[in-house]
Amino acid sequence: MKKKMILKGFVMMFACMLTAVVSQAQDKPKPSPAKTATGKAGAANITINYSAPSAKGRKVFGELVPFDKVWRAGANEATIFETDKDIMVEGQKLPAGKYSLYALPGASEWSFIFNSETGQWGIKRGGETSKDASKDVLTVKAKPAKSASMTETMAYEVTPAGFVLRWENTEVPVAIK
């Protein structure tokens, strides 16, 4: 009887400790938290779901995010771009729907790639993106510019003219009609 009570006490203590550890782990903020940018571009409702990494004193474009290598356009899962209407992105038609959004950053020009496969993790174990090129729907070019101020945490903004990606000292506008 006494052994049973001691065993129950240990089980209860272990359960309490496990509960405390799990609840404490859930309170920690993610290093690259999930974010959503929404708005209207022309007549379309646009939503961009992404994970927002921070610069943390690092040089971002050209180093952390290499030039001329496909990037998941955020952190964690591939960035998701959704439009409820057909739109023209940089003069090219993109049908209404949900897409993974990838970027190919360059020093003087970027490409944004809309891919029909969604829900995948953004990179594979070797560091390359999980993008399946056979599912690319549209690729558009955009010109990066130096931003007016430092943006510590990467952010997308949907505007009446399209969307803008901002991070570090760079902003890349993409026109939508």
TrEMBL record:
Superkingdom of origin: Bacteria
Keywords: Signal
UniProt xrefs under Pfam families: DUF2911
Signal sequence range: 1-25
InterPro entries assigned: DUF2911
Protein name: DUF2911 domain-containing protein
Organism from which the protein derives: Dyadobacter psychrophilus
